[in-house]
């Protein structure tokens, strides 16, 4: 939103906008795409903002944009698919992950904390390299667990062929399933390989820490 418009004296109808309020209408992800001196189009009250529910994302509907004095039947029908472009990711916090129990040769339980109720999607990245190169991704949605919230833990499992192997894991969250927030710490884990070769140990508690005030 431009607070001040000043007419450019060298042109009959060119104006310079200053004192700008940015990131309105949930346009956070576009904030870095603009620069000083960029040409813009002034939109007045004739431009209407239409609020759509998240359930409309991906749905195509026919719209008619009617100008003043025009009959609806004479307006062209335009098919518009709502992409949720301004539905920004509200799950921006960096989660924390840790190994909850000692690893077996077939599974490792990992806990997750420091994520909000807005987190509806979780991206889990797994790599054999500590710098997370060539990481495999798995995506989970809260609704897959018949829940409105993501679970506080997940399990890395294998059929035994990775016994003794080391992997690196990190996660991130999203509220819209398209844009993901900050990455978690990278967690190193190792599957056990028999009694003489234990895997990584764990005691991580994903539960929120209780705060007790002493009076």
Give structural notes.
The chain has 215 residues and is an all-beta fold. It has 2 domains: 2-81, no CATH class; 96-190, Immunoglobulins (Immunoglobulin-like, Sandwich), CATH 2.60.40.10. The protein contains no helices and 11 strands. The protein has strands spanning 2-7, 15-20, 60-64, 77-81, 96-99, 107-113, 121-127, 136-141, 153-157, 166-174, 187-190. The chain has a 4-stranded antiparallel beta sheet with strand order 8-7-10-11, with no helix packed on it.
List keywords for this structure.
215 residues, mainly beta, Immunoglobulin-like, 2 domains, 4-stranded antiparallel β-sheet, 3-stranded antiparallel β-sheet, 0% helix
Brief write-up:
The chain is 0% helix and 30% strand. The protein has strands at residues 2-7, 15-20, 60-64, 77-81, 96-99, 107-113, 121-127, 136-141, 153-157, 166-174, 187-190.
Layout of strands and helices, then pairs:
Blueprint: E1 2-7, E2 15-20, E3 60-64, E4 77-81, E5 96-99, E6 107-113, E7 121-127, E8 136-141, E9 153-157, E10 166-174, E11 187-190
Antiparallel strand pairs: 1-2, 3-4, 5-6, 6-9, 7-8, 7-10, 10-11
Rg for CA atoms: 25 Å
Q: So, CATH architecture of the largest domain?
A: Sandwich
User: Any idea what the shape is?
Assistant: elongated
The separation of the N and C termini measures 48 Å
Q: Would you count the extended β strands for me?
A: 11
Largest sheet report: 4 strands, antiparallel
Going by helix content, strand content and strand pairing, the class is: mainly beta
What is the N-to-C succession of helices and strands?
Answer: EEEEEEEEEEE
Low-confidence parts:
none
Helix content: under 10%
How many domains, as an integer?
2
- Give average pLDDT, whole number: 84
> So, the CATH homologous superfamily of the largest domain?
Immunoglobulins
Query: What name is given to the CATH topology of the largest domain?
Result: Immunoglobulin-like
* Number of H/I helices: 0
- The top-level CATH class of the largest domain is Mainly Beta
């Amino acid at each position: 939103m431009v607070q001040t418009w000043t007419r450019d004296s060298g042109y009959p109808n060119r104006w310079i906008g200053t004192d700008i309020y940015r990131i309105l209408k949930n346009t956070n992800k576009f904030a870095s795409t603009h620069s000083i001196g960029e040409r813009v189009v002034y939109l007045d009250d004739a431009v209407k903002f239409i609020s759509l529910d998240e359930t409309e994302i991906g749905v195509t509907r026919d719209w008619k944009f009617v100008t003043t004095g025009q009959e609806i039947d004479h307006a062209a029908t335009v098919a518009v698919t709502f992409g949720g472009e301004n539905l920004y990711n509200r799950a921006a916090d960096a989660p924390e992950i840790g190994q909850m129990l000692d690893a077996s040769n077939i599974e490792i339980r990992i806990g997750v904390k420091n994520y909000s109720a807005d987190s509806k999607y979780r991206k889990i990245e797994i790599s054999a390299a500590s710098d997370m190169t060539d990481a495999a991704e798995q995506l989970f949605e809260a609704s897959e667990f018949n829940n409105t919230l993501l679970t506080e833990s997940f399990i890395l499992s294998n059929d035994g062929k990775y016994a003794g192997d080391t992997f690196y894991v990190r996660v991130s969250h999203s509220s819209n399933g398209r844009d993901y927030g900050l990455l978690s710490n990278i967690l190193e884990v190792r599957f056990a390989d028999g009694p003489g070769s234990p895997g990584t140990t764990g005691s991580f508690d994903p539960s929120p820490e209780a705060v007790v005030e002493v009076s």
